[in-house]
Specification:
Elements: E1 3-7, E2 10-12, E3 18-25, E4 34-38, E5 43-48, E6 54-56, E7 64-69, E8 74-79, E9 88-94, E10 97-98, E11 102-106
Parallel strand pairs: 2-11
Antiparallel strand pairs: 1-3, 3-8, 4-5, 4-9, 5-6, 7-8, 9-10, 9-11
Length: 108
């Protein structure tokens, strides 16, 4: 069974940092691109490509860093200088598979 499980969310003040993790199982992790999305509208945040490339939405460039550990079948999203508008439920995605999400709340 293909599965994605996110963790690492929480509540922080503006300017704070969080690191999200997405543990994958059931498919050849290293061969595929994975993505992070935010919110019910599934706003794309960042991608980690199979070739270790990274892509970011303009709103998070310079503040967020996506990385992956193929040995652990895990991708990460390091989020720095968080803003209230970064708040939301963050999802990990591969093809048509979605995790359950992890909540990030940024407020003073």
């Amino acid at each position: 069974e293909v599965q994605l499980v996110e963790s690492g969310g929480g509540s922080v003040q503006p300017g704070g940092s969080l690191t999200l993790s997405c543990q994958a199982s059931g498919f050849g992790f290293s061969s595929y691109n994975l993505r992070w999305f935010r919110g019910k509208g599934a706003r794309w945040v960042a991608s980690s490509t199979s070739g270790n490339g990274t892509l970011y939405a303009d709103s998070v460039k310079g503040r967020f860093t996506v990385s992956r550990d193929n040995d652990k079948n895990t991708i990460y999203l390091q989020m720095n200088n968080l803003k209230p508008e970064d708040s939301g439920l963050y999802f990990c995605n591969f093809a048509d598979v979605w995790g359950q999400g992890t909540q990030v709340t940024v407020s003073a």
